[in-house]
Design brief:
alpha/beta, N-(1-d-carboxylethyl)-l-norvaline Dehydrogenase, domain 2, binds nicotinamide-adenine-dinucleotide, six-stranded parallel sheet, EC 1.1.1.22, 3 domains, elongated, NAD, binds uridine-5'-diphosphate-glucose, Rossmann fold, NAD binding, UDP-glucose 6-dehydrogenase, UDP-Glc/GDP-Man_DH_N
Length: about 450
């Protein structure tokens, strides 16, 4: 089938590459000339494992192409996917500027029946606004080609995006036209080998399902972060509690890892946008507001622990950071906990020496050259001249470091672990004090 995808970011590129991989002809459209140039030169503008190979292979096979020309895109696909960003507006609601911009462009160029598939995360009612925008743009030029607008939210996780897309837990399709539902079912059939994962439902339920999923996952994390603060204060170990509750299949082990807060381009903005939706219907979203507030506070936890350890005298100190991206296996820094920590350290007069396997360039793009930030390209080099080490992102390569070498390098022998990736006894045995989340600090015991 011929597919057009507006937006060549995390979702658009993964969707495009995976749909091409199963035999469709995909044309990706983006307004960002720089991104399209990189893609047309066999590069990939983001870091996502496996994506570069998949794009290169499908481009070479003639099934995947990139352009900045929307007219070409609209002429190409029966399916017109919208996968552009929906960043938070000033009041926290989803900013639909890009989504409706694409809708307008489709209306300006459409020359026959099209299925417009909304993959961006958008509030309930957006499909109606997309349809209306296309209708208005068509009316302005005196055409009225038939259009079906479908809600098809995306549930992939960055860092595992291709796997998630290729083997989805579910594919939600919101439509009021059974025939369109069947066409989407056919498009997704190659990802449905074991059993049918396509769920066709009404449009508004599909739109809300996306927010419900993210809000539920964010709630699990904030719940655990709140409990971690309680555990720490009462002398319990949150990691034991995590195992204790996760063993109940009604609770499960997934998404109950405590840490220094959730980040990324989805949970923070989607929880907020759902709150705004609730407020728009005069419903007070108490639970969602608490989830957000707990997360906001949790992002301060590492700084508070570091500040306390140095008696509030951080000026002139150097703190080493391992991990900058909001989670492992991505270079995405949107709402990353590392940003809050760095900004608090800088405000307190400290310097940061940081290492991340892939996010240094993005960090440099955000903060520019600053005298109090040094980005190094090797993890142990972050410790040179540092007073303490903080783990912010749980990249696999940080999991079994040489603790003796860490001890030898640090001015003050202390490790702050924002993701609880170490065995406290092992760290302490190397002569390092160990401060983590939801567990009592463990003083160095020495060898
Ligand atoms: N990143 C994720 O893990 C993820 C997962 C599921 C859903 N989502 C949702 O999917 C949407 C896209 O997210 P993303 O992370 O891929 O965004 P992104 O910022 O990485 O990419 C969006 C792209 O859209 C392009 N764009 C903007 N206006 C355009 C236009 N008029 N025509 C063509 N391209 C245009 C931008 O230049 C950019 O390249 C958001 O609504 C997001 O909430 C994201
Ligand atoms: O037990 C956990 C699990 C995650 N996190 C944090 O939560 C954030 C989000 O992680 P994750 O969900 O793995 O990454 P995303 O790529 O943001 O994916 C989420 O957001 C996407 C965009 O909407 C959805 O498509 C995905 O299903 C949903 O998992 C990260 O900061 C993690 O460190 C925790 O603190 N504890």
């Amino acid at each position: 089938m011929n597919v057009t995808i507006f937006g060549s970011g995390y979702v658009g590129l993964v969707t495009g590459a995976c749909l091409a991989e199963v035999g469709n002809h995909v044309l990706c459209v983006d307004v960002d000339q720089r991104k399209i140039d990189i893609l047309n030169n066999d590069g990939v503008p983001i870091y996502e494992p496996g994506l570069e190979d998949l794009i290169r292979k499908n481009r070479a096979a003639g099934r995947l192409a990139f352009t900045t020309d929307p007219a070409q895109g609209i002429a190409h696909g029966l399916f017109q996917f919208i996968a552009v960003g929906t960043p938070p507006d000033e009041d926290g609601s989803a900013d639909l500027r890009h989504v409706l911009g694409v809708a307008r462009t489709i209306g300006e160029h459409i020359n026959g029946y099209r299925i417009v598939v909304d993959k961006s995360t958008v509030p309930v009612g957006t499909a109606d606004r997309v349809a209306e925008t296309i209708r208005e743009a068509q009316a302005a030029r005196g055409t009225q080609h038939e259009v079906d607008v479908v809600s098809n939210p995306e549930f992939l996780k960055e860092g595992a995006a291709i796997e998630d897309f290729m083997r989805p837990d579910r594919v939600v399709v919101g439509t009021d036209n059974p025939r369109t539902g069947e066409l989407l079912r056919a498009l997704y059939a190659p990802f449905n080998r074991n059993h049918d994962r396509v769920m066709v439902m009404d449009i508004r339920s599909a739109e809300l399902t996306k927010y419900a999923a993210n809000a539920m996952l964010a709630t699990k994390i904030s719940f655990m972060n709140e409990l971690s603060n309680i555990a720490e204060a009462v002398g319990a170990d949150i990691e034991q509690v995590r195992l204790g509750i996760g063993s109940d299949p009604r609770i499960g082990y997934q998404f109950i890892y405590p840490g220094c807060g959730y980040g990324g381009s989805c949970f923070p903005k989607d929880v907020r946008a759902l709150e705004r939706t609730a407020q728009g219907i005069d419903y007070r979203p108490d639970l969602l507001q608490a989830v957000e507030a707990v997360n906001d506070r949790q992002k301060d936890v590492l700084f508070r622990k570091i500040d306390a350890r140095f008696d509030g005298a951080l000026a002139g100190r150097t703190i080493a950071l391992w991990g900058l991206a909001f989670k492992p296996n991505t270079d995405d820094m949107r709402e990353a906990s590392s940003r809050r920590l760095m900004e608090q350290l800088w405000a307190a007069g400290a310097r940061v020496r940081a290492y991340d396997p892939v996010a240094a360039e993005e960090t440099r793009r955000i903060y520019g050259e600053r005298e109090d930030l040094t980005l190094v390209d090797e993890q142990m080099a972050a410790l040179d001249g540092a007073d303490a080490l903080a783990i912010v992102t749980e990249w696999a390569q940080f999991r079994s470091p040489d603790f003796d070498a860490i001890k030898a390098k640090l001015g003050t022998p202390v490790v702050f672990d924002g993701r609880n990736i170490y065995d406290p006894a092992q760290v302490a045995a190397a002569g390092l004090d160990y401060v983590s989340i939801g567990r009592r600090p463990v003083p160095a015991t020495g060898r």
